[in-house]
């Protein structure tokens, strides 16, 4: 693993750690913060393909998690 890949994975780990608990219900502020943080990772790593792929995967995971939380509320 290259140093760049390690840095990307470290930042993606920190990203997931920070946003791993999506709130129930309407969450515009949460998703705005998620989007901004993910964009910062992309800029920081000059849109490194690993950052894009892992970031998109984490975003998809968070969305699935958020939907599951909201399904349980009904």
Considering the chains and any ligands shown, give keywords for the structure:
3 helices, mainly alpha, 74 residues, 80% helix, elongated, single chain
Distance between the termini: 44 Å
* Total helical segments: 3
Shape, principal axes of CA atoms: elongated
The residue-averaged pLDDT reads 96
Structural class by helix and strand composition = mainly alpha
Q: What would you say about this model in short?
A:
The chain is 80% helix and 0% strand. By secondary structure, it is mainly α.
Please, could you describe this protein's structure?
- The chain is 80% helix and 0% strand.
- It has 3 helices and no strands.
- Helix 1 runs antiparallel to helix 2 (28-44), helix 1 (3-19) packs parallel to helix 3 and helix 2 (28-44) runs antiparallel to helix 3 (49-73).
Topology:
Elements: H1 3-19, H2 28-44, H3 49-73
Helix pairs in contact: 1-2, 1-3, 2-3
